[in-house]
Amino acid sequence: MSISYTSSPLESWVSNWYLKMNIYKPSDISIHNICKIHRIFYSEKPLPSYSKQNGNFKIISVDSRLSIEKQHEVAFHELCHILRHAGMQGMMPEAFRELQERDARHFTKYASIPHHMISDLDLDSPNIIEQMSSTFKVSQELCVERLLQIKKKTFHSRRGCHGYIS
């Protein structure tokens, strides 16, 4: 697929981060391997999901009661907090916490369905949502959000708008 697409700075950061880890295609995306590379202890337990960092000790625990697709999404959300954020959310101003959560939501979309991996997809296929969900192993809801985001950006690129749309 040849589309005009301008990635946001965070999208570019995520794709470059993946490429540095030799993650080129959807089947290369493994939260276990990513955590191993970043020396993050990863576990799945029937408890609410969380991430913590104390010095060099980093942990992500994902609720094993969630579907596999939701576990992937939650893992990326928590990974964003470890890689990109500082501080304890319970101790920070609400506006700063909201900013971190917004960043984590965007990171989750970009890490789950990176822009450097969408070129093989037919975004106009009637089954694109199911195909994306199966290929990237994330929920159809996240695929709908990401597809709308991609289509907005390609539409704006065709119209000559170059502002970032998150």
Observed structural traits:
166 residues; mainly alpha; three-stranded mixed β-sheet; globular
Termini separation comes to 22 Å
Number of strands: 3
Count of distinct structural domains: 1
Instruction: Report on the biggest sheet.
Output: 3 strands, mixed
What overall geometry do the principal axes of the alpha carbons give?
Answer: globular
Quick structural summary:
The protein is mostly helical. It contains 6 helices and 3 strands, in the order H-H-E-E-E-H-H-H-H. A hairpin with a 2-residue loop joins strand 2 (50-54) and strand 3.
Describe the protein in words.
This protein is mainly alpha-helical and 166 residues long. The chain has one domain (9-158). It contains six helices and three strands, in the order H-H-E-E-E-H-H-H-H. It has helices at 9-20, 31-37, 68-84, 94-112, 128-136, 140-158, and strands at 41-45, 50-54, 57-63. A hairpin with a 2-residue loop joins strand 2 (50-54) and strand 3. The protein is globular. Residues 161-166 have low confidence and may be disordered.
